[in-house]
Amino acid sequence: MTISSHAAAPPRPGRYVTLDGMRGIAALAVALFHFDFIRAPHGYVAVDFFFALSGFVLWQAYHARWKEQGYSAVAFMRQRAIRLYPLFLLGMVLCTAVALVQMTGDGWSEKAAYRIFYSLPTNLAMLPSAVTQALFPVNLPAWTLFFELVASLFMVTVLFRLPRMGLVAICLFSAWVLVPVVTERHNANIGALWGEWPVALARTAFSFALGALVARLPQPARRPQGWAGALCLLAIAYLLGLFVGFGMGVSIPVKTPEVGQYDLACILLFWPVLLVLGSRCEVPVLLAPVSKFLGDVSFALYAVHWALIDAFRWLKDEAGVPALPSAALYIATALTVSWFAVKWFDEPVRRKLSSMLRKGREPALSVTAA
């Protein structure tokens, strides 16, 4: 879930500001779900929206170059690694530091130490741990970034070569794998554990291929700017929190048939519709700075939010701060940390890596690409 953009610069031609805002809202939903699921009980299905956005953006940014100029798989994957790895590494370092601090004194656990030190060698290489049940036990949400890399490789080696019907076939086969599992389990919160990798792969393949299909639809010469884009932002926020009114004191069972049906509706229907609409209209000028800001920090927010959770859970559970203010403080802190991570770490590191490895020849992405 990544964004290559600069908040202080004017929007580049082709930048999809509505999609920036939608990605930011989706990242907020994931962060709130991990902090306290009742704040955004379906936040995990935002992952599928991230994958669909990546498929859309990568097709838009690279397919023409690959087709017309012979853009190689090595160059493509190098670009993806440069985009993804710095913030992935920062998230891993922060989460490891938090885990080590928690282990000092009475918090020592031999099992936890084993989980950290034996998983880190592969996890730091952006590969799943071979010795734990979780793919990335220190920073659990990082499993999606591994599948992002897998999907990126699949895109440049396979998807770019397929006709539209080939992409449709991948979507249909992936849905055929995904739907029975979600229906049986009553939710789509699947993918972080080793035993779930086939379904995680199906989630990724469906949404990536779907994003590529949307990118292949005829694009309007000019995207109208108005309240249609704002309604898209409201729609994705509403859909992610539909069941509980965004955590205003109403609760639901974690797993019911209705939950699974809702998750599938988001993945198979709502996200495709919102991706089409969001790529064809822009938010009003008044909302554009907020939308661009959310887009700029969304990947950083996804990468680092796990490291902040325990401190604010302590605030909520031990210090007696009410749940809603605790969630608001958590989100405000996460957004602040994410902004600094982008401006003072991610952008300088990527510029340096680009200078070293690409010598300034790669194009900047025009929109978010998770």
TrEMBL record:
The chain crosses the membrane at residues 45-62, 82-101, 142-160, 167-183, 195-215, 227-250, 262-281, 293-315, 327-345. Signal peptide: none annotated. Residues 18-341 form the Acyltransferase domain. Keywords: Acyltransferase, Membrane, Transferase, Transmembrane, Transmembrane helix. Pfam families: Acyl_transf_3. Coiled coil: none annotated. The keyword Nucleus does not apply. One of its GO terms (molecular function) is acyltransferase activity. This is Acyltransferase.
